[in-house]
Amino acid sequence: MKSIQKLVFFSLLIIILILSPVFLSIFGVEKVYAVTPTSEIDAAIINAIAYFQTEQNDDGGLRWVDQNSSVPTTIRVVLALSAAGFPQDKLVSGQGKHPMDFLHQEGSRWIYQQETDQPTLNLARAGQLLTAVSAANMDPYAFGVESINLVHLIKIHYDPNTGIFGDASPQNVTDQVWAMLGLASAYASIPPEAVDWLTAVQLPDGSWDDGFGGYLDMTPLGLMAFIASSNKDSDDPSVIMALDYLKTQQQLDGGWQTDWDTSTNANTTGIIIQGIVAAGQDPTDPLWRTNNVTSIEALLDLQREDGAIGGDFTNAYSTADAILGLACHPLYDLGHLRRIGRAFEMIFRSQESDGGWGSVGQTIDVILAANAAGWDPNTITPDGTTPETYIAENLGTYLENGPDAIGKVILGVVATGQDPSNFNGT
């Protein structure tokens, strides 16, 4: 099974290299919110990444509250780099290590809480790590020194009888939300019952609790989990409730702060902007302005001369979350796996009732791409008509195009598992 999963993963990456200009133009989250000049936002992000370089240790990890490398901070930095359009090797330590090198070494220890007296799996941590692995376009089915299958690890801690991931409860939905976001980032399926449970435990004001009273931090994550699951649309009442709650908490400077902040919180504001974007809204729209100030401007106002972005607590973690907000890219939608998966969804939906995609040539293109990505082309059937049937019924006319058409048909027939020397009587 693991070899099949890895084959699918690397096949998808090959397909992406060929087709990404088309697919990403369709499915990439655009930076379309340009009330604040794009040049100003880009300059802020570049300065923030320069600050990261001063906070990186030799092992490739990024610091948080002390001088040691922090897994959660490094995860956020990986997400920020991807959201801002930078490769992961943008940050290289003095020993030649990247942030993902650090996560490769320490990710497993962190998700199993080996820093504690009683190490055990923390499913929310596994979901967070999975978002970073997906964003960095690394293999989520075999990550780290122990080659952990993060997708499987999360799925086996799902209870289909209750719809609950891990230890999630109405008083603390952290496991549920991060499990859903992690799976979505890797384009893995999310059970509808998990979405139903998260809907059922949403509080009357539209928020969710993280177990520590962090309603404002958890609510945008729950909102993104809804959208990422593909089981909720932006006009769903639960989505609207969450957005309404966030709007009621917005500060006069355009940003957000928790009960324990004295000023706008860069982490909270950055995550909330992602939730707004995920729900299909514009964070610079008049609806999301206070005193004609946007949340983007609120983040920009928090940047220090050294490039760090933060309020009461300013560090690499707060700066990374701010970049995610400034880039307007939801953290679950950064990697190739999810984007190419959504592209295949669009392709499969466009299949015609005769089993093809407009012509034999285009149909073979889809067959080859689907086969390389691990799909059996014969299972892609509207109304029971397969692509193979479409090719067989239109073969004669297509072969009149010459030797190149014959060669292409051979490739397509092989991809469907048939013998090209005895296909449709030819």
**Which strand-content bin applies to the residues?**
under 5%
Biggest beta sheet summary: 2 strands, antiparallel
Mean pLDDT score:
90
Supply the number of helical segments.
18
Quantity of strands, as a count: 4
Principal-axes geometry comes out as globular
Could you give a quick summary of the protein structure above?
The chain is an all-alpha fold and 426 residues long. Helix content is 51%, strand content 2%.
Plain-language structure description:
The two termini are 36 Å apart. The radius of gyration is 23 Å and the shape is globular. A hairpin with a 4-residue loop joins strand 3 (158-159) and strand 4 (164-165). The chain has 426 residues and is mainly α. It contains 18 helices and 4 strands. It has helices spanning 2-27, 38-54, 71-83, 99-111, 123-135, 150-155, 174-185, 192-200, 215-228, 237-248, 266-278, 295-301, 316-327, 336-349, 360-372, 387-393, 395-399, 403-415; strands at residues 62-63, 69-70, 158-159, 164-165. Helix 1 (2-27) packs across helix 14 (336-349), helix 3 (71-83) packs across helix 4 (99-111) and helix 11 (266-278) runs antiparallel to helix 12 (295-301). It is 51% helix and 2% strand. The strands form 2 sheets. Strands 1-2 form a two-stranded antiparallel ribbon.
SSE topology sketch:
Elements: H1 2-27, H2 38-54, E1 62-63, E2 69-70, H3 71-83, H4 99-111, H5 123-135, H6 150-155, E3 158-159, E4 164-165, H7 174-185, H8 192-200, H9 215-228, H10 237-248, H11 266-278, H12 295-301, H13 316-327, H14 336-349, H15 360-372, H16 387-393, H17 395-399, H18 403-415
Antiparallel strand pairs: 1-2, 3-4
